[in-house]
Amino acid sequence: MENLALLNLPDEILHMTVCGGMARVLLLRTTGTTRKAAQIHQPSDTAMAAMSRLMTATSMLGCMMKGEDDSVTVTVAGNGPAGKITCVANGTRVKIAPQNPQVELPLKKDGHLDVGGYIGHEGRLTVIKDLGLKEPYVGQCQLVSGELGEDFAHYYTTSEQKPSIVALGCLVNNGTCLSAGGALIQPLPGCPDDVLDLLEIRAMFFTSISREVAEEPLEDLATKWFDGMDLKILEKESVSYQCDCSREKMEKALIAMGRQDLNELIEEDEGAELTCHFCRTSHQFTKEDLISLMERATR
Ligand SMILES: [Zn+2]
């Protein structure tokens, strides 16, 4: 376990197909992304594992979208102490806003971090895909366990009618992410059931996926795991934690509040400090700043 901390293979997403293009396979390493999120949000070990799994799963959804400006927002709202967690992927850039990242829970009886307990075993998983159309696509399902892997598998099956195998993992030791990653196997149109059954058997390789992705290049793992299944590697892209917030965007948000609310900030608070939920960067607005923003407000 100690050796893993020394390995720094890059965060990547490997796109593949198997069985003559009947199924899509994604393999991800998200260790650096998780470490960056941890640096920003200072989570407990359990919260870090939950955030990491959610970022990995959201990156999967994000990297399957085609348009340059397409984005996906995933919200997990369970009945556990985590509250609401929002994760956004824009292509291969991902960011997360946890509500209660400091909460820690005792380990489960099997010695694993209690991600399901932290998220809660009941609640909702919401996926909003912004494809640049008038209306975004909204998919929703109930949480199955709160462990997130099963919940996303359930989402793909019920909301997108694509019964999928989802593996998400994050190894954490005393506040440090040692390794994180995941895998998705999804049938493509026309995929017969027996191919899925066959893939289900290969999915047993995913049980310690976070450890595996730390130690070997993703291509080598895929070649080993899908041996004899006509594996085709399509492309590899990097994934990273990035927030696209800016003072200009904060200004727009303030202007959108309208004159009345802005006036309240000016009169009562004599200024405003806005902190981005995704990167914790604070932007200060003086009374004078707010007055000039109010002049730009249309209502
Ligand atoms: Zn930000």
Heteromolecules bound: zinc ion
What is the CATH H-level superfamily of the largest domain?
Answer: Hsp33 domain
Low-confidence runs (pLDDT<50, min 5 residues)? none
Please count the beta strands (DSSP E, at least 2 residues each): 13
Structural class: alpha+beta
CATH topology of the largest domain: Hsp33 domain
H-E order: EEHHEEEHEEHEEHHHEEHHEEH
Strand order of the largest sheet: 7-6-3-4-5-11
Shape: globular
What is the gist of this entry?
Helices cover 34% and strands 30% of the residues. With 299 residues, the protein is α+β, with helices and mostly antiparallel strands.
What would you note in describing this structure?
By secondary structure, this protein is of the alpha+beta class. It folds into two domains: 2-241, Hsp33 domain; 247-296, HSP33 redox switch-like (CBS domain Like), CATH 3.90.1280.10. Helix content is 34%, strand content 30%. It contains ten helices and 13 strands. The chain has helices spanning 31-41, 45-63, 115-119, 149-159, 193-202, 209-215, 218-225, 247-257, 259-269, 287-296; strands at residues 12-18, 23-29, 71-78, 84-90, 93-98, 123-130, 137-142, 165-173, 176-187, 232-238, 240-241, 271-275, 282-286. Strands 7-6-3-4-5-11 form a six-stranded mixed sheet, with helices on one face. A hairpin with a 4-residue loop joins strand 1 (12-18) and strand 2 (23-29). The mean pLDDT is 93. It binds zinc ion. Residues 243, 245, 276, 278-279, 281 line the site of zinc ion (ZN).
Please outline the helices and strands.
Layout lengths: L11 E7 L4 E7 L1 H11 L3 H19 L7 E8 L5 E7 L2 E6 L16 H5 L3 E8 L6 E6 L6 H11 L5 E9 L2 E12 L5 H10 L6 H7 L2 H8 L6 E7 L1 E2 L5 H11 L1 H11 L1 E5 L6 E5 H10 L3
Parallel strand pairs: 5-11
Antiparallel strand pairs: 1-2, 1-10, 2-9, 3-4, 3-6, 4-5, 6-7, 8-9, 12-13
Helix pairs in contact: 1-2, 9-10
Bound molecules: zinc ion.
The site of zinc ion (ZN) has 6 residues, from loops.
